[in-house]
């Protein structure tokens, strides 16, 4: 370890591993250290033993839950948008060679105490109980506007300026009811609250386009998910980094980050060893003095079930969104469901992970409606995560810190963070060219 590197990366969360992989491909000499003995950091997937160690150290898993190695429980419940930025990065870096994906079978939205499938086809929209007949026509006009929208063709803008008109004004133009606005804003644009209504419409429209393009890719839902859990994603980028000379050290303590007389980072100390580098990237847990709380805390409950979610046609995987208006809250509640068919649970078992931003001192009671939708569950593990962000941008001391994983249901904000850190380090936007696929022999070298 006593040598010089271009970049040292601390922690093996997804953000850190993507940056490690990208910088290695660009020819940087990268050392990647994690104090934990497994990949993933805050975005790891845990087997039963590690899950109990983390959340219930004095208890043992029941035998009925099956083999330890059959379980890979995600600490952060997120799916990938089929046409999203993370999927594009995976494809262009050829990291998909180390991963296998399965489509999430459905997306549901909660209204008036029950859940309904988010329609993905015109036939589903016609049959959907989410809208009345006249509202379906208005919704169809709105979706036609989204589908026909061309930036450089003003005739497709229908008199709207999406950089000036708010989303409330766009909804008003199409005469959409409040329930439909909820459905569009939260189940399609995937906003976690209603702040977007007073913002210029551009980002919401771009999010709806991404949703519709992702649905169009495979049908059923806009989401895909890696077999064996989300912890596979950082491992895949770690392999990419290793192929290009990156060095990985797990279960390695980080005792000190060292700075020179000018206050710029110069290396990392572990025991008696020092690794030198002029750039250090890391997650917030390695830099408690350099991060601040965002003021938001995320509640997550990992529930183990031995049956599919009621009223979902026995689907093996799905997402349920409970828009905040439905429960008179400020933030949505998400439920991500995966199962044995994704190699994350033992046979005939399902994993349902509830997550939301906390609004009271009793988050489990805030989420009572979500728990009710699941039916009976065999086990539940609850955790609260503080969300952190860096105080400075890293340009002074060359320490670049990622943000905590937020409450959103997908990885688009994570890839925004990756692109932002990359730009601060290099001064140029992250553009990932399609990489030549390696042969198996080259991969093993």
From TrEMBL:
<dbReference type="GO" id="GO:0005093">
    <property type="term" value="F:Rab GDP-dissociation inhibitor activity"/>
</dbReference>
<dbReference type="GO" id="GO:0007264">
    <property type="term" value="P:small GTPase-mediated signal transduction"/>
</dbReference>
<dbReference type="InterPro" id="IPR018203">
    <property type="entry name" value="GDP_dissociation_inhibitor"/>
</dbReference>
<comment type="similarity">
    <text>Belongs to the Rab GDI family.</text>
</comment>
<dbReference type="GO" id="GO:0015031">
    <property type="term" value="P:protein transport"/>
</dbReference>
<dbReference type="Pfam" id="PF00996">
    <property type="entry name" value="GDI"/>
</dbReference>
<dbReference type="InterPro" id="IPR036188">
    <property type="entry name" value="FAD/NAD-bd_sf"/>
</dbReference>
<dbReference type="GO" id="GO:0016192">
    <property type="term" value="P:vesicle-mediated transport"/>
</dbReference>
<dbReference type="GO" id="GO:0005737">
    <property type="term" value="C:cytoplasm"/>
</dbReference>
<dbReference type="InterPro" id="IPR000806">
    <property type="entry name" value="RabGDI"/>
</dbReference>
<protein>
    <recommendedName>
        <fullName>Rab GDP dissociation inhibitor</fullName>
    </recommendedName>
</protein>
């Amino acid at each position: 370890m006593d040598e010089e590197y271009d970049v040292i990366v601390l922690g093996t969360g997804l953000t850190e591993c993507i940056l490690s992989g990208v910088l290695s491909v660009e020819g940087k000499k990268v050392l990647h250290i994690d104090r934990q003995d497994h990949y993933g950091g805050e975005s790891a997937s845990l087997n039963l033993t590690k899950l109990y160690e983390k959340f219930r150290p004095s208890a043992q898993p029941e035998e009925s839950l099956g083999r330890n190695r059959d379980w890979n429980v995600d600490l952060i419940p997120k799916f990938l948008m089929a046409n999203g930025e993370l999927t594009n990065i995976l494809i262009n870096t050829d990291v998909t060679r180390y991963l296998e994906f399965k489509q999430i079978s459905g997306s549901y939205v909660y209204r008036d105490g029950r859940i309904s499938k988010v329609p993905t086809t015109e036939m589903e929209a016609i049959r959907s109980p989410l809208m009345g007949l006249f509202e379906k026509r208005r919704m169809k006009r709105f979706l036609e506007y989204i589908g026909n929208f061309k930036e450089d063709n003003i005739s497709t803008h229908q008199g709207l300026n999406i950089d000036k008109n708010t989303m409330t004004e766009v909804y008003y133009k199409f005469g959409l009811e409040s329930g439909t606005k909820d459905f569009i804003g939260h189940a399609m644009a995937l906003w976690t609250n209603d702040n977007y209504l007073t913002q210029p419409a551009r980002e919401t429209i771009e999010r709806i386009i991404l949703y519709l393009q992702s649905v169009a890719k495979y049908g059923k839902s806009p989401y895909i998910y890696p077999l064996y859990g989300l912890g596979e994603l950082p491992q895949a980028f770690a392999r990419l980094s290793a192929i290009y000379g990156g060095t990985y050290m797990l279960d390695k303590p980080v005792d000190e980050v060292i700075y020179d007389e000018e206050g710029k980072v110069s290396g990392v100390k572990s025991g008696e060893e020092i690794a030198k580098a002029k750039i250090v990237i890391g997650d917030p847990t390695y830099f408690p003095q350099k991060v601040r709380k965002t003021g938001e805390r995320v509640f997550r409950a990992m529930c183990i079930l031995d049956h599919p979610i009621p009223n979902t046609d026995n689907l093996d995987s799905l997402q349920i969104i409970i828009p905040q208006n439905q429960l008179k809250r400020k933030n949505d509640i998400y439920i991500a469901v995966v199962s044995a068919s994704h190699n994350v649970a033992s046979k005939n078992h399902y994993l349902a992970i509830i997550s939301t931003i906390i609004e009271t001192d009793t988050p489990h009671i805030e989420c009572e409606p979500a728990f009710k939708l699941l039916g009976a569950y065999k086990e539940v593990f609850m955790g609260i995560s503080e969300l952190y962000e860096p105080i400075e941008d890293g340009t002074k001391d060359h320490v670049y810190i990622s943000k905590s994983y937020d409450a959103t249901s997908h990885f688009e904000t994570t890839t925004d963070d990756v692109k932002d850190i990359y730009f601060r380090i290099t001064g140029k936007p992250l553009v990932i060219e399609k990489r030549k696929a390696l042969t198996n022999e080259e991969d093993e070298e």
